[in-house]
Amino acid sequence: xxxxxxxxVLQIRDGRLQVLLWQRAREPHLHRWSLPGGRLAATxxxxxxxxxxxxxxxxxxxxxxxxxxxxxxxxDRVPGHRVVATAFLGLVPSDTDPEVxxxxxxxxxxxxxxxxxxxxxxxxxxxxxLRAKLSYTNIGFALAPAEFTISELRRLYSAALGYxxxxxxxxxxxxxxxVLQPTGRTVPAGPxxxxxxxxxxxxxxxxxxxxxxxxxxxxxxxxx
Amino acid sequence: xxxxxxxxVLQIRDGRLQVLLWQRAREPHLHRWSLPGGRLAATxxxxxxxxxxxxxxxxxxxxxxxxxxxxxxxxDRVPGHRVVATAFLGLVPSDTDPEVxxxxxxxxxxxxxxxxxxxxxxxxxxxxxLRAKLSYTNIGFALAPAEFTISELRRLYSAALGYxxxxxxxxxxxxxxxVLQPTGRTVPAGPxxxxxxxxxxxxxxxxxxxxxxxxxxxxxxxxx
DNA sequence: CCAAAAGTGTTTCCTGTACACCCATGA
DNA sequence: TCATGGGTGTACAGGAAACACTTTTGG
Lengths: 224, 224
Known about the structure:
seven-stranded mixed beta sheet
């Protein structure tokens, strides 16, 4: 019984949420598109393993966030002998265009090609996790450049969530939570004119839960 | 390389959040307490496996909820050759007292005995998951009897969350979300008198996200 | 001066919290 | 009728959404 690690590496490219896939050159599932990853080695844990394996496809320094998604373990999920997969979500900021091998390409998540095995499900799980965490964490830092304007950030959130987010409220919500910081600098306006936008950055570039209690908050002034 | 499944099975007993553990009768970690589970067989997926293995410890019909937590894969997490573990959260309603084997016992999560391997971490992960989901899902159904009074439910939520929850607001929040239903019936008052409490039930006994968007809701009237 | 884009002020709504008050029972 | 626990009504606060309005640029 084998164990593999797989990652849905997501990035906003051309205003759409895209995932990194490579095209199989062998049976089974010849020519279908599949997730980067590979076999878990004996001396590494799953996170070390997926980072090592991703390094072969993407410059690993560009990976701003990696987290476990779930185990996929249907006995027939791949033909032949049984392989359990631990799936990951990986994120790359929108201002990088990592070199990728020739057999590898970015695909819009809402227009996936024919994928191998159960990789389609895994990509959708990665998207769901990202969407959920955009609401209650600062995970946006992993999709955005180091510094950005509110409109750029709005486009990133809109693409990831799949619906339009208003710039006004985006800024206000993130500012109230202390997630965003103004840099004090601005950037020249575009060709159509307009007021030159201010540059912002994320206060922290580590994942933090910013809205921990949806309800049933502990009484104010107590410790969890 | 082996694969095992382990479950943190939680129940509110005597007003405290408790976890089901069994005491090892062999080295390594002789006499330490460990989580129920065992080796993943070749023809089952991880969820089937954990349910099968739990059936040996608890009447499986009493398990109202089972969900994946995470993979624990440190190469040295157990001595000897390498075993990857998929951990689960399991829940048992407070009105059942399942028969358990002689080596098995319930332990308060906040006063764990010496546990084997990395099982301590897994128990804490199970508690965190439960606490988080109590806020934004109807997962309370899995801790509560089929019908219950608001005070009973308040005690369950307080024990699971680790702080006092007000009955007034608990009822209001769950009612507003459509999670609770009055049965119309009441129950005799206790020995100290008092108004006889009304009986409620959960509208659904399947896990449902009741508060999906912390923020960045899609514009009202759109589809995700 | 006008169009365009960015950013701010203001209003409204909703949800959850806090707390006072009313209700129904046993002794 | 009083103590006790259950339940409701009401006021308050915070956060987010909607939208009008102001600011700052390019042409």
